[in-house]
Design a protein that fits this description.
The complex is a heterodimer of chains A (about 450) and B (about 150).
Chain A lengths: L1 H26 L5 H25 L5 H22 L14 H20 L5 H14 L24 H13 L4 H26 L2 H13 L1 H8 L4 H21 L2 H13 L5 H21 L2 H23 L6 H8 L9 H16 L8 H4 L11 H24 L4 H26 L11
Helix pairs in contact in A: 1-2, 1-3, 1-6, 2-6, 2-7, 4-8, 4-9, 5-6, 7-8, 7-9, 7-10, 7-18, 8-18, 10-11, 10-17, 10-18, 11-12, 11-13, 12-13, 12-17, 15-18, 17-18
Chain B lengths: L1 H6 L2 H15 L6 H11 L7 H14 L9 E6 L10 H14 L3 E4 L5 E5 L10 E7 L3 E6 L1 H4 L1
Parallel strand pairs in B: 1-2, 1-3
Antiparallel strand pairs in B: 3-5, 4-5
Helix pairs in contact in B: 4-5
Classes of the chains: A mainly alpha (about 450), B alpha/beta (about 150).
């Protein structure tokens, strides 16, 4: 019985990773192996989460059928992969990771587990918002649809269901609620962010800077606690980072498939949190604007096409929810846009931002030591670098606007969410800052 | 100044960076041992208040076959109106109960066949309800008396 449960648990985790790997490899055949492996995690879990939600919407209520469908899905992807590409692992470079990284990982896992041992059901929001919804999604009767009718606005019925759907899917494999699987899923997402940051920096910059930036993230308690908190912010940061890394990869390789992959990650982020919707708009608009300016019409059409698919999916999901989002409700009914003229709200936001930079995120300022030799962006990555800077600046501006016009008490909302909002874009900030460091060969003036 | 900095080898900067990183995180030096000890000695679920509360409620709910019939459960506390969502203990009780009563929806200040009440004073309990079970933190599960139900 226990062996069977362990096997099903391993299967529930392995299937998304495998199908993610095959799907990434089929989309972009030339992509370096290290990116295929890390991209497999968000793509696989993202797609299987959507598939599980669609299965719920079809009102089938027979999980064994869904399981068979998943097996078939991964087998088809594997056949397509092996049919068109014989895996030649020799053409991919394998990099032995620094021993320091493994020592750090022991401590990182300890910090991560310590949080779980104290909060097995996750952070208060993780339990209250995400795991409650996961419970609804395990219900095998039409009553699961009550997930859209929760009475308190703090239950956020309009939030996308990536995390609840992923958790519910794994719980169904195991035959019921099991918080150990939540923490494993959280660990996969959290450490995938660290590994992606490491690989992206070692690919575009150098090994030592990659090690420094990834070490900071890996040992950061605020990052690890949020990852272990079973909330959606760290998974969202993974989707954001994947999309951003794809921008750099696209401009290096000029392969349209890499561009598609980046848009898929930005699109899937709409399924993780509402902030993903804003990110998709900004990401697509920036790329659309750039390619239109360059008159690269094929790329313009690609951006528009992938964007339309994901925006349609997001709109369909929103149409299932009978309530208005609290922000939209505030703007329409409470004229909360008038808060834009309230200087006090800006002061509260910026004061809290500065406070958190020097407290919760103080350790990240250590990176400034490496910045003492100055900053310089390589000529080769200048265009994607500028585009990513525009994207991240617009995203930060979007967050500011949302805070300012939010109908809620500004002190309360900043206190309860600003750290997590900062975490969503933290890996990207680390990436773009580290890419601009002059230190390290060949950029240094030494 | 910048030129002087450039004369310093890169490895010095990296050395300073990693030394500072280690110093910053010295507090975690015994963390692997602490975690190993906690995981061997601690019953993480029993010691967690949310988990304990929701699992007790779930256990009780299992005994009532008609619990999910209406898909609605009421919630009352000593606080009136929206104040339920302004008090930390009340918020905790509300959402823990919502978790336990899935797939039913919990409505604050609403009557239903079953209601969950968080009150210090049992005299304030509605008369048309009987107490099914009492839980820690002044939480009680009530059921409407059958004569009132019809």
């Amino acid at each position: 019985m226990l062996t069977n449960q362990v096997l099903l648990f391993v299967l529930s985790m392995l299937i998304p990773v495998l199908s993610g790997f095959f799907a990434v490899s089929l989309t972009d055949r030339e992509l370096a192996l290290r990116f295929r492996v890390v991209f497999a995690v968000p793509l696989g879990f993202g797609v299987h989460s959507i598939l599980y939600f669609i299965y719920k919407c079809l009102n089938v209520y027979d999980f064994s059928k869904f399981r068979i469908f998943e097996y078939a899905f991964v087998i088809v992807l594997a056949l397509l992969y092996y049919n068109q590409e014989r895996p030649q692992l020799s053409k991919h470079k394998f990099f032995g990771m620094n021993k320091w990284f493994f020592v750090l990982k022991v401590f990182a896992i300890s910090i991560f587990l310590q949080y779980f041992l104290c909060n097995p059901m996750g952070h208060w929001d993780g339990f209250r918002i995400w795991n409650t919804k996961a419970q609804f999604l395990t219900v095998q009767t039409p009553q699961w649809q009550n997930v859209f009718n929760l009475s308190s606005y703090l239950s956020h019925c309009d939030y996308p269901l990536f995390l609840p759907s992923s958790v519910a899917r794994i719980w169904m494999y195991q035959g019921g609620e099991n918080y150990f699987s939540n923490i494993v899923l959280g660990a996969i997402m959290t450490f995938a962010v660290v590994y992606l940051l490491y690989h992206a920096l070692s690919y575009f910059k150098n090994e030592r800077i990659a090690l420094a930036a990834a070490s900071l993230l890996m040992i950061s308690d605020v990052f690890l606690h949020n990852g272990a908190g079973q909330c959606a912010d760290v998974p969202l940061s993974l989707f954001f980072l994947c999309a951003i890394v794809c921008v750099f990869l696209y401009f290096k390789s000029q392969r349209i498939s890499t561009l598609v992959l980046g848009l898929i990650f930005a699109g899937l982020s709409t399924w993780v949190k509402n902030e993903g919707l804003m990110f998709l708009l900004i990401y697509s608009a920036t790329l659309f604007g750039y390619f239109a300016f360059k008159k690269d019409w094929k790329q313009v059409c690609t951006v528009a096409g992938v964007f339309s698919i994901f925006i349609s999916f997001a709109m369909w999901f929103k149409s299932l929810i009978p309530f208005q989002n609290d922000l939209v409700y505030g703007l329409v009914h409470a004229k909360s846009y008038l808060f834009a003229f309230d200087l006090n709200r800006y002061i509260v936001i910026f004061k809290s931002l500065i406070k958190y930079i020097f407290t919760e995120f103080g350790m990240f300022l250590l990176l400034l030591v490496l910045g003492l030799k100055g900053l310089k962006v390589k000529e080769k990555i200048r265009i994607p670098y500028l585009l990513v800077c525009v994207m991240i600046a617009l995203t930060a501006l979007g967050y500011l606007v949302v805070y300012v016009v939010s109908p809620h008490d500004i002190n309360w909302i900043v206190e309860n969410s600003l750290v997590r909002i900062m975490l969503q874009i933290l890996p990207i900030i680390l990436l773009i800052f580290s890419l601009a460091l002059r230190i390290g060969k060949p950029d240094t003036l030494n | 100044m910048i030129k002087k900095l450039h004369k310093i080898p890169d490895k010095v900067f990296f050395g300073v960076f990693f030394a500072l990183l280690i110093l910053w995180n010295l507090k975690y030096i015994d963390m692997p041992l602490r975690v190993a000890y906690s995981s061997l000695t601690k019953d993480i679920y029993k010691e967690n208040s949310y988990y304990a509360m929701q699992s007790q409620l779930k256990e009780e709910i299992k005994k009532h076959s008609d619990f999910f019939d209406t898909g609605k459960v009421g919630f009352f506390s000593d606080l009136v109106g929206n104040e339920i969502f302004l008090d930390a203990k009340s918020i905790e009780a509300f959402y823990t109960t919502q978790y336990a009563v899935v797939p039913s929806v919990l409505y604050d200040n609403s009557a239903a066949e079953y209601v969950v009440v968080q009150t210090k004073n049992i005299d304030t309990l509605p008369k048309e309800y009987k107490v099914v079970k009492s839980f820690p933190n002044n939480i009680r599960l009530l059921k409407r008396r059958s004569e009132d139900a019809h």
